[in-house]
Design a protein that fits this description.
With 169 residues, the protein is of the alpha+beta class. It is built from four helices and five strands, in the order E-E-E-H-E-E-H-H-H. Strand 2 and strand 3 form a beta hairpin.
Length: 169
């Protein structure tokens, strides 16, 4: 499964300053709006690039070593000729740990945290978190089943928090 940011690229107006022929034969520059539109587009691309890179970095930082490699990005060339990240994706190991439901629960909690780490998780990020919930629930069910099979009474939550000490003087 992949954890990825939203990959909706911007639709940019790449309208370089051009010379146009007028009916009187004189060449004039296009309106002065073109440079300001280009600058606005570049600012939008720079902002998107920062958001995408921060989003993917949040996944990696929260993955606790479950990330498989770094993030990969999709790029768009700006009117300035530079490439800007407009989408990103990272892979994370979401497989259960065979024969160890407790470790699987901890792993599912870790990759759910990684999926939801960015400030604005994408639909794919939320889908990975839902998958983590399902894996965790299945592992908990296996733990309960094993506990019943082994005849070990399950611990009540209050038993784990309180204990009794007898002191003889």
């Amino acid at each position: 499964m992949n954890i990825s940011s939203s990959t909706s690229p911007f639709s940019l107006h790449n309208s370089p300053l051009a010379l146009q022929n007028h009916s009187d034969g004189n060449k004039t520059k296009q309106s002065h709006e073109a440079p300001s539109i280009q600058k606005k587009d570049i600012v939008e691309l720079q902002t998107r690039d920062r958001e995408v890179r921060n989003h993917e970095q949040a996944h990696i930082a929260a993955s606790g070593g479950l990330a498989k490699g770094g993030a990969s990005f999709s790029f768009q060339r700006g009117s300035d000729g530079k490439f800007y990240a407009v989408g990103g994706e990272g892979s994370i190991d979401t497989s259960p740990i065979p024969g160890n439901p407790q470790a699987t629960i901890q792993k599912a909690q870790q990759f759910r945290a990684a999926a939801l780490a960015p400030a604005d998780p994408s639909a794919q990020d939320r889908a990975v978190a839902v998958s983590a919930n399902a894996i965790e629930a299945a592992a908990r069910q296996k733990m309960q089943q094993k506990t019943k099979e082994d005849g070990i009474p399950s611990e009540k939550p209050t038993d784990a928090l309180f204990f009794h000490i007898d002191v003889f003087v």
